[in-house]
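Box 4.2: Ligand-aware structure prediction
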Amino acid sequence: MLQNIPYDDYELNLLSSCQLCPRRCKVNRLKGEKGFCQTDASLNVALVCNHKGEEPSLSGEKGICNVFFSHCNLQCTYCQNKQISDNKNEVKNSYSTFDDLILEIKKVLQESENVLGFVSPSHSIALMRAIIRTLHSQGIYPKIVYNTNAYDRVEILRDLEEFVDVYLPDYKYSDILLAKELSRVENYPEIALKAIEEMYRQKGRNGVIVRHLILPSQINNSKKALWNISDISFNINVSLMSQYTPCEQYKQEYLNQYLNEKEYQEVCDYFYEIGLSQGLFQELSSQNNLVPDFDSNSWS
Ligand code: SF4
């Protein structure tokens, strides 16, 4: 079942009673048991690809080699990656062995800026660590980006300090009820904020970019999210994303709209009003441009 994944004792221990993320399901993933993320300890990499759409300071000209894991420890109603992130679907795995996966990563890394990003890694930290250790053992040391929904445990993040160079957390909600309704998660605002605090403690300003996706008609959620982030530092890098795209018909009417210019401007203005200073502001025109298609392995 483990497809020769070279887990070390620490990782085996993590998987034997899984508390990798704040859901703390305590299932034995090595024996095939599954918790909320419906993922055991085998390979769950849906796609490895070169991606040029991340923040310019990371993707540079040649792009970033992104590793997309199947399934997720959140289940966001409006997720753009549902093809691979929906825990109700079978785990999508595109590689029959760990060695095949490493070969593919090495190939894509060569085309990129030598930056390796792990997307939605919180439930796959053991596998991520095994990948990084294996590359290091072969003398390959790319810059490592941890691209997360921020629903992470501080204790687990502490043990990632030596593995990760840049944290890219998405601080999704300041509104606890919205988090529960849209992502099936308890106490998200506080847990995610503590996780981002730990990331900032480890890497400082140069190693953290906090993302926030502005949802249509949820401007107060976005403003309070910025307020919470500013508690960590007024100099923290914040990337405000306007790319929200409805991917299906939702029962929440507001999710069937796009963000409008007035809403976006209000959030951008608030960013400066409260004293934040390091902002990256996505063009509103990026709506629809950044929706991945995992069946055709492309970005539409
Ligand atoms: S990683 Fe998965 S199994 Fe482990 S605690 Fe989180 S949701 Fe549960």
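In the box above, the bound molecule is iron/sulfur cluster. The mean pLDDT is 94.
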